[in-house]
Design brief:
5-stranded mixed beta barrel, two-stranded antiparallel sheet, Butyryl-CoA Dehydrogenase, subunit A, domain 2, alpha+beta
C-alpha cells in the first residue's frame, strides 16, 4: 500500500492560501471557529482515514457485501466508521447548534469528506449519505420529522439514503411510478420499487431512512406531480419502538468497482403497509430533492478527485522507487538504471494526474466556498454566490468524474504491468472511479443541465458572472511575467467559450432544441477545461506571490511544483478547447440527431 492518499500540504494551500477559508469566521454562524478548529478537523479526518479506512481498502473490495436470508452483510469496518463519525459529531458537523451540529463550514467538511474518500471511497459513503439526507429533512421537514429522525441520523444509529431511481424510469424522473396514497392518519401508504440505492440495507445500523420520490395519487403528470417522502425501513410506533415498515431489500447488485457499499433494490408495500411521511409541500419533491442532488453532485466530484489523488500518490511513489532503463542519451549499458520518474514521458503522465487532481480539488473548494457564502449572506451578494454555484455545479461533478478516469488510467500506466495486477491498488482505483460519471446524473445530463438551463438562466446572468470572475483572475496575473502567457491563453479560451455559447443558444432561439442540446456533453467538456484553467491560474498567482516571500526550502519546492503544473495545464490541456470549439460551431448540422437507429446495425 502507498504511504499517502491525499496531500495535507495541498489542502492547506487551497483552503488557506487560495481561498482564505479561515476568513469565514467573520460571519456569526461560523464565528466560534477559526484556523485552529479547521486544522483539528482536517487532522482528525486524516488520522481516521489513515488508521481506520485505508487499511480496509483492498479487503472491502475483495469481500463484497453479501445478501443472505433477507439481510445485507457488510465488512465489519463499516460499523466502526459509522460509529466513529456519529460519536465524533462528523455526520452533522455542518449543521446548526439547534440541530445538534457544530456549525463547521461546508468547505472544511468537504475537505474532511474528501480525505475519507481518498482513503477508502466505499467506506466513506455510509456516513455522508446520511449527512445529505438529514440536511434535506432539516430544510423541508416538519418539526416532528426533524425531532424523530435527525438526532439518530447524526449519531450514526440510523443510515440515510436518497431513493430516486426505478427500473422502468432510470434517470427519467418524469416516469416514476412509485405511488403514495393519502390516509387520515398523517402518513401515506407507499407502493413501488427502487433500484441502485446505495446503503439502503445493511447489518451495522438499527434503521435506514430513505428520502424517496413518489407520486401522490391524483397528482399531475410529469415532474410537477412528484413529492418527497421519508420512508424508513423500520418505523417508530406510538411508544417509540421500531417495527418493520413493509420495505424490503430484495436483491443487491454486483459491481465493477465501489464494491464495499451495497447497491440495493427495494420493494415497497408488498403487504400494503409501507408508510411514508411527506417532506415539504406536495408536488414539490423535485425542487426539494434537488438540494440534496446538487450537494451530492459536488460530493461525487470530490469522490472522483479523491480516488484520483490516491492513485496519483501511489503512482508517484512507485515511479520514485522503480529503477528501469537509462537516460535516452546514455550509450553505456553498464550504467546503473534510473528511477522511471526521470523519464520525460513518465513526468508527463504524473503532471497530467497532478493537474487533474489539484485543478479538480480547487474547483470543488471554490463551489464549497460559494455554498457557505449562500448560507451567511443576503441580497445581491447571496444571489451572486447562488448563481456561481449553480453554473459551476455540473462542472464540479463531471470534470473530476470524467477526467479522474483518465488520471487513474495514467497512474496505472506508470506502473506498467504491475498496475494491472491487484498487488498494487491502481487497478482497484481504476474500477472504483468509474462509477462517478454515472452517479447523480450522467455526464450527458450534466451537459444538458449546464447548456440548457444554467447558461441561459436569468438571461445569462450566471454565465456573465462566471466570465467576470475569470476576468478578475486574468487581471491579477497580468503583471506576473511568468503567468502572462497563461493569462492570455485563458482570455482567448473565454472568448472562444462566449462565441460557442452564442452560436448554440442561437439554435435554441430558432427552436432547434434537439440540435441545440445534441452536443451538450462536448460543451460541458469545453467549459470544464476552461473553468479548471481559471482555477489553475488562481493557484499559479498564489504560488508566485508565496514564492516571492522566500519561504523555507521545502515550501519553495512545493510552490515551484504548483507553477510547473499550472504551465502544464495551459500548454497541454487548455489547447483541447480549440478542437471542441471547432466541432461545437458546427453543431447546427445536427449530425447525431439525423443519424437513424437502423444505420447502427450490420
Amino acid at each position: 500500500m502507498a504511504k499517502k492518499f491525499m496531500s495535507m500540504r495541498n489542502l492547506h494551500f487551497l483552503l488557506y492560501e487560495v481561498f482564505d477559508t479561515a476568513s469565514l469566521a467573520k460571519y456569526p454562524f461560523f464565528s466560534d471557529h477559526g484556523k485552529e478548529t479547521f486544522d483539528m478537523v482536517l487532522e482528525t479526518g486524516m488520522k481516521m482515514g489513515r488508521d481506520i479506512l485505508y487499511p480496509a481498502l483492498a479487503e472491502m473490495d475483495r469481500n463484497q457485501p453479501v445478501f443472505e436470508k433477507g439481510t445485507v452483510r457488510v465488512h465489519p469496518v463499516v460499523e466502526t466508521v459509522v460509529k466513529e463519525c456519529g460519536g465524533g459529531g462528523w455526520i452533522g458537523a455542518h449543521a446548526s447548534y439547534e440541530l445538534g451540529g457544530q456549525q463547521i463550514p461546508n468547505t472544511i467538511m468537504t475537505a474532511f469528506r474528501g480525505i475519507f474518500a481518498a482513503a477508502n471511497y466505499s467506506a466513506s459513503v455510509y456516513p455522508f449519505l446520511t449527512s445529505g439526507a438529514a440536511h434535506l429533512i432539516a430544510s423541508f421537514g416538519s418539526k416532528e420529522l426533524i425531532d424523530t429522525y435527525i438526532p439518530r441520523m447524526f449519531s450514526g444509529q440510523w443510515q440515510g439514503t436518497m431513493a430516486l431511481t426505478e427500473p422502468q424510469a432510470g434517470s427519467s424522473l418524469t416516469d416514476l411510478t412509485t405511488t403514495a396514497t393519502p390516509t387520515d392518519k398523517g402518513y401515506y401508504l407507499m407502493k413501488g420499487q427502487k433500484i441502485f440505492i446505495s446503503c439502503a440495507d445493511y447489518d451495522c445500523v438499527e434503521n435506514v431512512v430513505n428520502l424517496m420520490l413518489a407520486r401522490i395519487e391524483g397528482a399531475p403528470a410529469g415532474i410537477r406531480g412528484i413529492s418527497l417522502f421519508v420512508v424508513p425501513k423500520m418505523r417508530p410506533d406510538e411508544k417509540g419502538k421500531l417495527v418493520a415498515n413493509d420495505l424490503n431489500c430484495v436483491s443487491i447488485y454486483h459491481k465493477l468497482g465501489y464494491r464495499g457499499a451495497p447497491i440495493t433494490q427495494l420493494a415497497l408495500g408488498e403487504n400494503g403497509d409501507c408508510r411514508g411521511w411527506l417532506v415539504g409541500q406536495p408536488h414539490k419533491g423535485i425542487r426539494h430533492m434537488f438540494q440534496m442532488m446538487n450537494e451530492a453532485r459536488i460530493e461525487v466530484g470530490m469522490g472522483a478527485a479523491a480516488i484520483a489523488s490516491a492513485a496519483y500518490y501511489a503512482s508517484l511513489e512507485y515511479t520514485m522507487e522503480r529503477p528501469q532503463g537509462r537516460k535516452i542519451t546514455s550509450k553505456n549499458p553498464e550504467e546503473p538504471q534510473i528511477p522511471i520518474i526521470e523519464h520525460a514521458d513518465v513526468k508527463r503522465m504524473l503532471l497530467f494526474q497532478r493537474a487533474v487532481v489539484e485543478g479538480s480539488l480547487s474547483l470543488i473548494f471554490q463551489c464549497a466556498i460559494y455554498a457557505d457564502l449562500v448560507n451567511v449572506t443576503d441580497g445581491e451578494e447571496k444571489e451572486t454566490n447562488e448563481l456561481l454555484l449553480e453554473i459551476l455545479t455540473p462542472i464540479a461533478k463531471s470534470y473530476p468524474s470524467e477526467m479522474g478516469i483518465l488520471s487513474v488510467s495514467q497512474g496505472l500506466q506508470c506502473l506498467g504491468g504491475y498496475g494491472y495486477c491487484d498487488e498494487f491498488p491502481l487497478e482497484q482505483y481504476y474500477r472504483d472511479v468509474r462509477i462517478h460519471p454515472i452517479h447523480e446524473g450522467t455526464t450527458g445530463m450534466q451537459g444538458m443541465d449546464l447548456l440548457g438551463r444554467k447558461v441561459v438562466m436569468k438571461n445569462g446572468k450566471a454565465f456573465m458572472l462566471f466570465l467576470g470572475e475569470a476576468e478578475k483572475t486574468i487581471a491579477g496575473a497580468g503583471s506576473i511575467d511568468e503567468l502572462k502567457s497563461c493569462a492570455e491563453a485563458l482570455t482567448t479560451a473565454l472568448e472562444r467559450l462566449k462565441e460557442v455559447t452564442g452560436a448554440l443558444t442561437g439554435l435554441a432561439v430558432k427552436g432547434d432544441i434537439e440540435v441545440f442540446l445534441a452536443d451538450a456533453t462536448l460543451y460541458l467538456e469545453m467549459f470544464g477545461i476552461t473553468a479548471i484553467a481559471w482555477q489553475w491560474l488562481i493557484q499559479g498567482i498564489t504560488a508566485h506571490h508565496a514564492l516571492a516571500k522566500l519561504p523555507a526550502a521545502q515550501d519553495a519546492l512545493f510552490y515551484k511544483g504548483k507553477l510547473a503544473t499550472c504551465r502544464y495545464f495551459f500548454e497541454y490541456e487548455l489547447p483541447k478547447t480549440q478542437g471542441l470549439a471547432t466541432r461545437l460551431m458546427r453543431s447546427g448540422d445536427g449530425l447525431t440527431v439525423k443519424m437513424e437507429k437502423e444505420w447502427f446495425g450490420d
